[in-house]
Amino acid sequence: MPLLLFFAPLFVLFELWQLVLSERYVGIKQIERNGDPRTLGLHELTAFGWSMTILLYWAWMLGLLFLSFGRVHGLSLLLVSGIGYALRRNCGLKWVLVVLTFEGALRVGLLLSLCVYVWRRY
């Protein structure tokens, strides 16, 4: 079994953590008081950890494309992330939380599907 497939459960946890952070920084309370999440500022350690994990996540998704076993899941994750980014880039702040939540839910579903697929195969 390829080592890359063992990272899927860790990225499920990362996606859930990312959903919690997005609710905190772009949540309903922030929208109600017209707060801009860019002015809130993350702690440096949190920003560094989040950014590095996103870069590792993208590298992992690209790595899945080279496996015959996880290619469809990797391509689907990249597609959902790309479409989500394009939508977030072109919508207002009030819709960013909706897009982030929907995108995160789709990625969690794809990652759980990959975990179950690996569990049944190996």
Blueprint of the fold:
Elements: H1 8-26, H2 28-32, H3 37-40, H4 44-64, H5 71-90, H6 93-121
Helix pairs in contact: 1-6, 4-5, 5-6
The helix/strand class is mainly alpha
What is the share of helical residues?
over 70%
SSE run: HHHHHH
Number of strands: 0
Return Rg in Å. 16 Å
Through-space gap between termini: 7 Å
Name the quaternary structure: single chain
Helical stretch tally? 6
Structurally, the number of domains stands at: 1
Q: Biggest β-sheet, characterized?
A: none
Quick one: overall form?
Answer: elongated
Give the DSSP E fraction (strand runs of 2 or more residues).
under 5%
Rounded average pLDDT = 86
Uncertain residue ranges: none
Could you characterize what this model shows?
- With 122 residues, this protein is mostly helical.
- The protein has one domain.
- It has helices at 8-26, 28-32, 37-40, 44-64, 71-90, 93-121.
- Helix 1 (8-26) packs antiparallel against helix 6 (93-121) and helix 4 (44-64) packs across helix 5.
- The radius of gyration is 16 Å and the shape is elongated.
- The protein starts with 7 loop residues before the first helix and ends with a helix.
What's this, in brief?
The chain is 80% helix and 0% strand.
